[in-house]
Amino acid sequence: MFRLTNVVIGIAVAVISLSLWAYINKPEIHPAWPQRVMGFSFSPMRADFEPEEKNFPSKKQIEQDLALLAGKTIAIRTYTVEDVLAEVPQLARKYQLNVCLGAWLGEDEKQNAIEFPRFIRVARENPNIVRAILGNETQLHGMVPYSELIHYLDQARKKLRIPISTAEPAHIWLKHPELVKHVDFIAVQILPYWEGKDVNTAVEHVFGVVKKIKATYPKKPVIISEVGWPSKGRSRLERDPPPDRPRQQAEASESNQAVFLRTFLARVKNEKLIYYIMEAFDQPWKSQYEGSVGAYWGVYNANRQPKFEFTQPIVRVPNWKVLASISIVLAIITFALLLIDSRAMRGHGRSFLALISYFAATAIVWIVYEYSSLYLTIGTIIIGVLLVFGMIGIIAVLLAEAHEWAEAIWYKQRRRSMDLLISTDTDLPKVSIHVPAYNEPPEMLRLTLAALARLNYPDYEVLLIDNNTKNPAVWQPLQAICEELGPRFRFYHVDPLAGFKAGALNFALQETADDAQVIAVIDSDYVVEPQWLRDLVPHFGNKQVAIVQAPQDYRDEQQSAFKSMCYSEYRGFFFIGMVTRNERNAIIQHGTMTLIRKSVLAQVNGWAEWCITEDAELGFRIFEQGYEAVYTPRSYGKGLMPDTFNDYKLQRYRWAYGAVQILKHHFTSLTGRETTSLTNGQRYHFIAGWLPWIADGVNLFFSVAAIIWSVAMMLFPMQVDPPLVIFAILPLSLFCFKMAKIIYLYRTTVNASMKHTISAALAGLALSHTVAVAIMQGLITQNKPFFRTPKLKTPSRLLKAIADVRWEILFVIGLWGSTCGVYMVQSDGGLDLQLWMLLLLIQSLPYVAAVIMAFISGIPLLPAYYDQDNDELIAPE
To answer: Shortest CA distance to 832 belongs to which of 739, 699, 709?
Structure first.
């Protein structure tokens, strides 16, 4: 692990990572902040205040805020005279601050009737009030009828000697020229962010708006009642860009806030304009009314600390060096863990893992940094913790996938030989072949038994155990076939027999010849090659070898497009995953084409009848005893695939549910809390191998949560934003990474064509929901019944096949409907909304894949037929 090459690779990638951090955070020189600005929008609310609940700051707190602004601004603009806020002008006079007094007019007419006379009184009592603004964006949001607003303005102008106006964005002033007749000046709100302007053109846009207002109303003074930029929040797209240029995007960030305000302040010095920067202090309470961005318009945060540099060059992330250092340390630790027992890996693989480690570490650091810098409530803290745990899970899956990719491709040589061994007949032990069967077609089993009769092996027996088949017309022909094949073949019909397949195999073990030393197991549909036992049994010459395993393979892939796709998907596990697992003696034993030392099988008390994947569980127990397994990627027998998509799903459900049973039952052994002979490499492969299935289970909850979140975004577009960009990038990255891995490994390792590679990816995706349900049910239930995969079954009709994916169809409708709904309601959203919609669509792909697979499986099979003359099942050309 601590080789010089590993150190060099780690340092090289660290330098690259640090260089990227430095490049992204390259200092930018912008005009310095002036000693004093014209004015600030002022609200003294702090993080724990909520004006809607009549929770206001104390006079002392207000005075502290005014003291902070003293000497930094000439004036402040207020928005209401409710409660203690009516005393702001009097307190501001102490710090030589002029006031633009605001009165809040809303939909509550009774509150308006209280607010207005108090506004008049405060304006009369405080000589430092230089102008007043009655109502803030009342026409934009339809809070006050136009006639009522005019009445309030006219009354105020009669009763006060200071200039009076109301504040609205430019398009309202341009749309209502009659409103101008009832004000002494035009108070225009210009917030380029809400209009989706790029920060680099935003300042020019501000002065363009002012110029247009002045040109339209040349006799009225114009002031900018709000101008600013948020430091956090969702991005916004420009609503109506000119046809000759692409749509711009406004991004909320501290650096963009600094760039906009410092550039604006430098430009406004040359203009005779009164302006109020939006705003002095962050207002966390606004997030529930304006979305997350509403909390982040302040030049100072809620703790009254400046959010950016006023005079120094602007850096995108001011403390990037600390974040970069943390990410590098985490990356080095991750890289070191991935390189444990990596002596057979080439430099390309190590470099690949180094890059993935730095990407993963940087992502985690950035997520934690971004989320922790938000104003958090109990609810958002809980959501954040869940999201961070989810992101850690995604990172874990990403690292496991990357590790398998590296070990599958970039190896110097295989550490455990898969070469065949040569033995003489006198050295070969007796083998007892067990064939469990339940309600299997006799014509299929005739092929299986005939192939076993042709084995090129000196000493073996075949035990066919038919368990619980009720129809004599099914099991009696099997008895006749065994009698025809001679004394090597013994038939048992046992009814009743508990324990499903495991029960049948345990029964066979009791009937096995005493002199047999090796147990072989095949499924009832497998046609084996004559050399199967002769090639593989010699591995038992090594006393530590307890399992010899050949891959599952199939002979009916040409029968339909559906089966061809299934065949492509199966091959990935047996020719990629099993090969890499074999390197650390950690293969999954599957219950066909497997050979087991009889004495070891007895030592571990046979097959587990409580587990529906009794084969994988047996292999795990054998590894716990310190024995070895040998895997060869060469096919020695071929069976039949499920005939319907529903059976394909049920088979995968059984595998995934059984995996959870094993994880739960052997948890202490897997985690090292129980002393067994399991190696760390074996523990790693069993956990990492099943991690993607566990991720599918978690992903089911994510799909439901994504639909609920999207519905909330549609119902409350101003209050509910899409999740932060960082939370969308990681799932998207994992999806792209897994697709790239499948394509690369299938093309290079399995030597699959692009058609078969795409088929494998589609078939694998189609099982995601099934796996997710199996994982979730496996966590909360104990013993689901064994699901048999029927053979030579009549294919489902199309409507039946589609009905079998009804839940997947509902998820497609939910996710696609959410995408369309969010787009229609929040069409001005920027990158974060676009990524969220993209994530919803990608989230739907497994469900779409299931529907496609169901449709394809509903296409009639080409008929296979049994050729009695040649004793074989003929698949169509």
So the answer is: 709
